[in-house]
Amino acid sequence: MNSILQPADTMTSRAYVALVLGSCAAILAAVLTLNLMLAYNNIRHDKNALASAWQQRTRGVTYAPPINDNRLFKTLRLNDRVGEINAIVFGSSTTMGIREAAFAPPLRAYNFAQSGNSLVAVVGEAEYVVARWPERIRYLVIPLDWALGFTFDPGTPSATELSPEAVRAATNAGRRRDGSLAQVRDALSLPRVKDLMTIAGDVLRAEHKATAFRQFFFEPAGEAYRCADGTPARDYDTLYRGLCNGFRFDGSATFADQRRIDARNARALLAAAAASGSQYAMALRRTRGEPHAPTLERLAALARRFARTGGATVFFLPPLMPGLEQALLASAHSGPALTRTKEALAAWAARERLTLIDAGASEKFGCAADEFIDPHHALPACYARVFARLPGAVPGTVRTSAD
Question: pLDDT for 1-20, tens place per residue?
């Protein structure tokens, strides 16, 4: 015989449900409030300007959030540094591992590479530099990154303005003006909740918890500190604090939040990168390995124009993890297309008498797998080998090894 729910039991059940729902509502309200506070704190402070000014004073490691949207920060830094340098490195995050120390004198370089920056965008940037600073900038270092498809991508470079005012205006115009409902959804999204949990853990572990809370939610940055090598650092984002993550004074990235490839996963990573479904194979298959000729023509014209003012342009194929290029060349799915890419770029450089360093087979330069964070992001040690003999390069030369 079924038991009959008594009134007291019913009241207890309702109270329990109310308690659970109330607790959930309180947690959601706390998460929403704290994440909206974090969002407002990012808006109320001009973190790009603050981080750039701090780096200019201290020569330390920093960046402005978010780390993968760094055009404004890099532009502010370039304009501050242009009176001290004579060379600029362009490109995407693939080239962020290039340090000024990779180049021998007389090169004094700033790494202007930005996350996701295409070759078409680089053309416009380089043309601006040649037109705006012909007497200050004497060297342009430009990647021809086929592995991410940039060398194949169609598109017409547009006129680019790299003044802080123009880039700030473009950045603000490109940011979506979300309504209140969209802001609430973003504040309660899983990535935001995970980030908030990380921040909460940092606050709870801090020696001075009230100070840590205030810095995260009300101040533009944490306290300055020292990296392992003694370089000063300051975090203007709420993530990766204390890791020395971000950009050095020379514009290169520390990649402190990324793991290096190690012996345990190198073989599996290489096999996946060389497979027919990898992003590298797909970029080759999509275009049959044919570089976009109009972009190359525009780059050659830029190099000629720059040379007439006494400047030098260096093009390079970014290094890939050891063995990857060889594996792709030996494969049925990518071999013919990659051969076409390399032959076309070599012929273009020879015809136009341009300096082209082919560093794709990084093992020929002595690079090791643990000098990469993934198959196409090389670290400073590898890039130092790639550019070791750059001052001796002559126009029309194609280098495929360190010899």
Answer: 455 555 666 668 788 788 88
